[in-house]
């Protein structure tokens, strides 16, 4: 039996349906993420699990028990917010001890659990410091420690890394993975940041307009999006409008708008006449000098219109001769060279017949 089961929950605010008949399960020890754009309903679901809000329909079950009549303070669940919500007048140790004090835990047991939890998040030496004396990353760990100290069955994290700078955010992602593995608590994580969700999660539910568009492992969501929205929302993606001409030997022959005929891998049950898009990631598109040799099934000449250099890789925007624009990614792995092509350079784009993923409309 799953630790958490969400059954057809719906939440309305006047005429607006923020969450519409959403269902999913979360297994014990899992790092489960609700991912989607602002306003998609992910935080509303988190609030309903926590007990801060109630669904208009459906059920929320923890260990098979309906939580409908259980107030927030009685649920074995803790929430970590983006703002951390630390008490500025309490020390780190006192902040972590607060939930235990409210629960009436004996002082000896309280001290032991606070000490153990601070050690888990590598903050034992800062127990006497106050929030204004520690860094943003340390505050984040204090908030996590306070969430873990009373041994919740479930820890909810609402955009907990959103206020951190990029380098610290990446460091805290590694800390979260390590911490979740060490303590074994089940995490339900809410974010709109796709790289963060892909890096942290065992499974991801991609949400849009109050519904789940796709629920799967990160690698499958990235490589095999179930529809146009998921393909476009997760990472960078070239979306090529295309109709199926023929399916044969595990490959599709497609008529792509503005490109002509291209080859792509077949997936489920595409048939001649189907219309949709080929989701083609920039890293699957090779970029070479004009007229460069390639064994790829799909090859098109074009001109570099723009590029984005980010150190380890450069993403090139290329206008093909037939008017279509594609993005191609190239690693900056040549010694002493910052980039390979300049705006205005003639190039050839190519990709293999088994690259990309075709999504039917």
Short description:
The protein has 361 residues and is of the alpha+beta class. The chain has 8 helices and 20 strands. The protein has 2 domains: 4-228, Rossmann fold; 237-360, RNA polymerase II/Efflux pump adaptor protein, barrel-sandwich hybrid domain (OB fold (Dihydrolipoamide Acetyltransferase, E2P)).
Please describe the structure with a list of short key phrases separated by commas or semicolons.
361 residues, alpha+beta, Rossmann fold, OB fold (Dihydrolipoamide Acetyltransferase, E2P), 5-stranded antiparallel β-sheet, 23% helix
Assign an overall shape: globular
Compute the separation of the termini in Å.
35 Å
**What is the CATH class designation of the largest domain?**
Alpha Beta
Order of helices and strands: EEEHEEEHHHEHEHEEHHEEEEEEEEEE
- Sheet/helix structural class: alpha+beta
Q: Based on DSSP secondary structure assignment, what is the total number of beta strands?
A: 20
Integer tally of domains: 2
Beta-strand level of the residues, as a percent range? 35-45%
Q: Portion of residues in helices?
A: 10-25%
Q: So how many helices? A: 8
Strand order of the largest sheet: 6-7-8-3-9-10
Can you tell me the residue ranges where pLDDT is under 50 for at least 5 consecutive residues? Answer: none
Largest sheet features: 6 strands, mixed
The Cα radius of gyration reads 25 Å
Q: Averaging pLDDT over every residue, what do you get?
A: 91
Q: What CATH architecture of the largest domain would you give? A: 3-Layer(aba) Sandwich
């Amino acid at each position: 039996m799953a630790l958490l089961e969400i059954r057809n929950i719906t939440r309305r605010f006047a005429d607006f349906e923020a969450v519409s008949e959403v269902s999913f399960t979360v297994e014990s020890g899992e790092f489960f993420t609700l991912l989607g754009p602002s306003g998609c309903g992910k935080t509303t679901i988190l609030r309903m699990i926590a007990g801060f809000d109630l669904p208009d329909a459906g059920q929320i079950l923890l260990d098979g028990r309906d939580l409908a009549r259980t107030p927030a303070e009685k649920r074995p669940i803790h929430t970590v917010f983006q703002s951390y919500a630390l008490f500025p007048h309490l020390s780190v140790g006192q902040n972590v001890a607060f939930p235990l004090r409210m629960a009436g835990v004996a002082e000896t047991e309280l001290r032991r659990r606070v000490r153990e939890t601070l050690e888990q998040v590598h903050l034992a030496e800062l127990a006497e410091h106050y929030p204004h004396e520690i860094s943003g990353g340390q505050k984040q760990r204090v908030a996590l420690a306070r969430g873990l100290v009373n041994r919740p069955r479930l820890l909810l994290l609402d955009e907990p890394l959103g206020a951190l700078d990029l380098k610290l955010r990446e460091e805290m992602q590694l800390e979260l993975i390590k911490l979740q593995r060490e303590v074994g608590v089940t995490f339900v994580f809410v974010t709109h940041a796709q790289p963060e969700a892909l890096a942290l999660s065992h499974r991801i539910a991609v949400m849009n307009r109050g519904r789940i568009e796709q629920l799967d492992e990160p690698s499958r969501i990235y490589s095999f999006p179930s529809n146009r929205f998921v393909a476009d929302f997760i990472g960078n993606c070239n979306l090529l409008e295309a109709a199926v001409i023929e399916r044969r030997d595990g490959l599709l022959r497609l008529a792509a708008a503005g490109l002509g005929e291209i080859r792509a891998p077949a997936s489920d049950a595409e048939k001649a006449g189907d219309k949709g898009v080929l989701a083609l990631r920039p890293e699957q598109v090779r970029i070479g000098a004009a007229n460069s040799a390639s064994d790829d099934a799909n090859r098109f000449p074009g001109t570099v219109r723009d590029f984005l250099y980010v150190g380890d890789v450069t993403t090139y925007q290329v206008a093909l001769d037939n008017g279509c624009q594609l993005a191609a990614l190239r690693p900056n792995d040549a010694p002493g060279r910052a980039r390979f092509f300049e705006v205005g350079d003639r190039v050839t784009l190519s990709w293999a017949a088994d690259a990309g993923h075709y999504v039917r409309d």
